[in-house]
What we know:
- The chain is 41% helix and 19% strand.
- It is of the alpha/beta class.
- Among the domains are: 52-137 and 229-254, Periplasmic binding protein-like II (D-Maltodextrin-Binding Protein, domain 2, 3-Layer(aba) Sandwich), CATH 3.40.190; 139-220, D-Maltodextrin-Binding Protein, domain 2, CATH 3.40.190.
- The strands form two sheets. A five-stranded mixed beta sheet has the order 2-1-3-9-4. A four-stranded mixed beta sheet has the order 5-8-6-7, with helices on both faces.
- It is globular, with a radius of gyration of 31 Å.
Amino acid sequence: xxxxxxxxxxxxxxxxxxxxxxxxxxxxxxxxxxxxxxxxxxxxxxxxxxxxxxxxxxxxxxxxxxxxxxxxxxxxxxxxxxxxxxxxxxxxxxxxxxxxxxxxxxxxxxxxxxxxxxxxxxxxxxxxxxxxxxxxxxxxxxxxxxxxxxxxxxxxxxxxxxxxxxxxxxxxxxxxxxxxxxxxxxxxxxxxxxxxxxxxxxxxxxxxxxxxxxxxxxxxxxxxxxxxxxxxxxxxxxxxxxxxxxxxxxxxxxxxxxxxxxxxxxxxxxxxxxxxxxxxxxxxx
Length: 285
């Protein structure tokens, strides 16, 4: 049997027990703090499960069952959209938007951002945060060097090819009162100049300059003075500052001057090959 006095705690032992409780309490508080901090950090860094909705002028065509070749598209908006979504860790959802619908779609939050060409005086500049994507060009023509076309007005009544996705080229061809022929891809437009089916093809001047450096294009490198340039931009809603900052950071990483030089060089080499395959390669299927 234990006697009552044997179970009593001395003052020194009591102080020791109190110190142990205090230290245990501190350790518990530290553990709770780090648990909460880790939870908050995990939430902040977890990828956004919602898709990134990007408005573009033209949706890429899915390859059909009978297609045996993919073509390089006219512009870079879809490419840049893919790179931004990948950088942000989000799935990409493309939404086709007419130029006049860009501002309202951003205001209604139908899309997270718009990627497209913008002139300096475009009203969208006052309706959204505009972030330069790094590409800027006017449009001009590719023609045979022995052409009799020396000014834009000479295109009146002539057959002019443009490719789907270059709204500025289409507008200029129609303004020149040309007979417009719309092709799905730049290679399909440019090959018509080489075969004589089109008197001219209108595309971005910056890209045609690169194309004319490719083998076999010297005889088809006649041009006209380029139109007023437009720039590829990302437009974000005025009330979404956080996304705008993320887009700026993403573009700095995926659309640097070096990257744009590579994009344009690849465009020219791929289009040159596609034109060759359409015009000269034997049909083996």
